[in-house]
Amino acid sequence: MKPYEPSPTRYERMKYARCGNSGLLLPRLSLGLWHNFGDVDDFNVATDMILCAFDNGITHFDLANNYGPSPGSAEVNFGRIFREHLSAHRDEIIVSSKAGHLMWPGPYGDGSSRKNLMASLDQSLKRTGLEYFDIFYSHRYDGFTPVEETAQALIDMVRAGKALYVGISKYPPVKAKQMYDLLRAAGVPCLISQYRYSMFERTPEQENIALAAQEGSGFIAFSPLAQGLLTNKYLNGIPEHSRATRGVFLKAEQITPEKLAIIRQLNDMAAQRGQSLAQMALAWVLRDERVTSVIIGASSVRQLNDNLQTIERLDFTAEELERIDQILKG
Q1: With the C-alpha atoms ordered 145, 190, 121, 105, is the resulting torsion angle positive or negative?
Q2: Which secondary-structure segment (H or E) carries 183?
Q3: 293-296 and 94-99 strand pairing
Q4: Which of 91-100, 219-228, 240-249, 289-298 has the lowest mean pLDDT?
Q5: At the topology level of CATH, where does 10-235+278-314 sit?
């Protein structure tokens, strides 16, 4: 097998932004491995997507311990792809992972306790074969673990050299503020905050984005295409083998005639801008300079390449933004 050689122009194909108050630059588009990289998926396609991403300047790969299916298999597959193709480029790559959702049976395989986070970190390092993660997140506030306990676990990961930076995901504003204060006081500031954010999920605009910026944390959005709703996939109904037919994260009953009418209007507007709906939806998330990066998913190199073209047109006029708001209001 011919050794992989990345494109020499890869960094010219991407835009980068400083993550919060840190010195770390992240690509405006990051690749997420939530779907399509597990042991039920085609390993060769997964390999091609990761190498295509790196060839186009995507340096940040977003994992979690429970990504698959089966849980953990996305980390295993990423580790294999990394060893076989990218290990010579470790210092050019940001790898993030997370822990906090159910991963193994019993009282210690779920939640935000020190026991769960420390065990999860070691397991994730073993699955990927990495010596450290660039970013390790508390994947959620579990509702009962004291924030002080979770914060100390994150601090100790950095001090042990198992993570370079730490972040939080899906924390409610009050708990996020506590975490920001605790981490900063320990000299391990929260690098980044991750939330679900899209045209169809604008809750972070209420507090989370502003709070992260105020506290010096970067902000990264996941599910920017609303599990595929903000693409051309559902314009003419629900296609066979789509996520909606599986009913796990996107259910068929969510695709109402009213929602379809909105999607079609947005699709028309995207065409007027010379973009696909997915490209416009991604650019819309990045319109706010406080948003450092957006996590894209893909099921094929073709789909990934379509999303990568977002970088060519990130600007909006005030009239376009107003029109989008009107469409989203129905």
Answers
A1: positive
A2: helix 173-185
A3: unpaired
A4: 240-249
A5: TIM Barrel (3.20.20)
* Those residues with Cβ within 8 angstroms of residue 312's Cβ, 6 or more apart along the chain or in another chain: none
Question: Six-digit token pair at 46?
Answer: 């997964």
CA dihedral (35, 36, 39, 43) positive or negative:
negative
Ranges of H-type helices in 201-300: 208-214, 243-246, 257-272, 277-285
CB 49 within 8 A of CB 31: yes
Q: Where are the domains of the chain?
A: 10-235+278-314
pLDDT tens-digit series, residues 38-81: 999 999 999 999 999 999 999 999 999 999 999 999 999 999 99
DSSP state of 233: T
pTM of the model: 0.95
CA angle 55, 169, 330 (to 5 degrees): 85
Instruction: Name the phi and psi angles at 218, rounded to 5.
Output: -70, 165
